[in-house]
Amino acid sequence: MKLAFSIAWRFLMSAKKQTIVIVLGIAVGVSVQVFIGSLISGLQKDLVDTAIGSTSQLTIQSDIDRDVEISDTVTISVPVITDELLVDEIRAYSDVFDSVTETLSVIGFVQKDGIEKQVLFRGLDLQNAEGIYKFESDEKITYGRMPEADDEIMLGLGFLTEYEENDISLFDENNPITIEIKRQGSSEVDVFKIVGFFDLGVQSLNNSWGVGTLGGAREIYGTNAYIISSIEMQLTDPFQAEQLALELDNGLDSTYKTSNWMVEQASLLSGLQGQSISSLMIQVFVIIAVVLGIASTLAITVIQKSKQIGILKAMGLRDKDASLVFLFEGTILGVFGAIAGVLLGVGLSVAFVNFAVDATTGDPVVPLFISPSFIALSAAIALFASILSALFPALRSSKMTVIEVIRNA
Question: Which of 48, 88, 146, 211 is the one with CA 20 to 30 A from 125?
């Protein structure tokens, strides 16, 4: 093998220009693969983060109405979960669950100085809900702070705008303004202090949501009993949502139901799958072009070096070693081409991120996601393709006889 490697190296060095052109051809193929793969991955990651990064990706709700006693004489039937242990069972079910939170939603009305506006009071386990809605980490709080007590509420920015149009101020950081909230269908009124406003980037939510604690939502309901509307989750791998929802549907009591983003946003999922297929097809065609280029060049090299191979065989070079010469050539070309291609692809990606930026925000126009594992896979595929493309020339050289070389000389 050492002799075959030495001969392969000499063949490559005796035609340096040709060797450099082949290495560049492989490098361009690998760099295109790295760049296109990083571009598509970045687009998909950004699209997923924007569309479902701040919402529940998998939700469990009650499929039946349960009685809730809100006074000694009044009981209402609503679709709520009353099993306190269920959320802990869900958290322990899978490591894919990144954030799990309980929620209790109440439809009601905000009243202030005679102006009434409908509100969806979202009672949340605020600490765990931050992992889903990212109020503080994504700086969605435009004024004030998160609620800390059961009698505090944070409203969508639409409330501030609408009340200001009626010359009613809703925000005072040092002396929080109070509002009255009553549940739809009830005459009972609860008083809340407004401690902040948020902007979720969706006008309908900014105009309708109020966020407080689970205790605050239960006060609006008029009960101290454990009730929640849903268990919301975000996953470390959002694309496992449908499979996990199916498992939970089969494992949970039939009085519960699940929903997940892969069903509710089927058009988004279809678009992501289309992007992945397009990216895969581009990379496959690039690899085919690289393989054909190397194979044709090495095949020509066999013809060019036929006299040398014939002489070496006359001197005792075995057919097996003659084959190894071209396999080593393919390997050497693949290694150098893959290294150069990775460097070129990463450099191209970094340059694209730095130069193709939005003039107003300074952020990249198209975000890239450079994955070390994907780069390693691209390099490995290029190396494998180079060795594969050397097989035919290797077989041809092994079958070449000294008499054939002399006859064609």
Answer: 48
